[in-house]
Amino acid sequence: MSVKKSVLEQKTNTELEKYIIPESRFVPEAIRYAFEILKSRGRHFSDDEVKSIEWLIATKEEVEDNVVHENYIKASNLFLVSVGLGLINIFLAPEITAEGSTIAVSIFTLGFLLIIGLLIRKSFDWMKYVLLVFMIIGVLAIPLLLQNIMYQPVVGIINLIQTALQVVTLVILFKIPANHSAEKQRV
Questions:
Q1: How many CA atoms lie within 13 A of 24 on its CB side?
Q2: How far apart are CA 62 and CA 70, in angstroms?
Q3: Cβ-based neighbours of 162, under 8 Å, separated by 6 or more
Q4: Are residues 178 and 118 in the same domain?
Q5: pLDDT at 128
Q6: Which DSSP category does 90 fall into?
Q7: Which domain holds residue 138?
Q8: How many angstroms separate the CA atoms of 94 and 60, rounded?
Q9: Contact status, residue 83 vs residue 112, Cβ threshold 8 Å
Q10: What is the pLDDT, as a whole number, of residue 184?
């Protein structure tokens, strides 16, 4: 959120004082500007007041940094729905439930995808590139998808829905501004 200092400079000292009180709901940048404007207008602050205002700004910046962009949550939800559909497909495809090894591979794959979904929710920006690589590799499986639609329509349609959900997930992830990644928040 952007705050214009010129807008705050038009406010009275009494109005600016509301920005620097401990219960302030204003963004850190607005609090900082209000503090600077009041100082430039000759308002003297005690050492305790300066520490209190600096603490208020730091606290609000920390809270602001920990906010996960809503698109990470949306993308994670869609991806996890896709994983849930994969779990349903395990029980609908008779060739998967026929052998123990294929069940184990399927469960391992779903677990891996579940971890990816959770990493997306934790706002790891690099996950969009991992998904992009998987999506490119997945293009090779389009003939299998078409075969599933012909021979096992329910499984094929679920696979098609999974693919659509994963494409939408990828699009949502690439729409997130770069300043919202978890790596940048931790630095």
A1: 26
A2: 18
A3: 82, 85, 86, 89
A4: yes
A5: 93
A6: H
A7: 70-186
A8: 54
A9: no
A10: 44
One domain, residues 123 and 46 = no
* Average pLDDT of the residues in 69-84: 93
Closest CA to 170 of 85, 90, 71: 71
Q: Are residue 48 and residue 17 in the same domain, yes or no?
A: yes
Distances (CA, A) of 85 to 58, 92, 119, 143: 43, 10, 19, 20
Task: Show the DSSP H helices in 98-152 as ranges.
Answer: 100-121, 127-138, 142-151
86 burial type by CB count under 10 A (0-12 exposed, 13-18 middle, 19+ buried): middle
Spacing of C-alpha 133 from chain mean position: 19
Q: Residue 186 is encoded by which pair of tokens?
A: 């931790």
Whole-model pTM?
0.62
Q: Sign of the CA dihedral 108, 113, 114, 118?
A: positive
Residue type, 1: M
Query: Based on the structure, what is the number of domains in the chain?
Result: 2
- Reported confidence tier of residue 187, pLDDT bands at 50, 70, 90: very low
Q: What is the mean pLDDT of residues 153-167?
A: 92
Tell me the pLDDT band of 183, cut-offs 50, 70 and 90: very low
Instruction: Note the Cα 179 to chain centre separation in Å.
Output: 11
**To 5 degrees, how large is the angle CA 87–CA 89–CA 90?**
65
Which pLDDT belongs to residue 141? Answer: 86
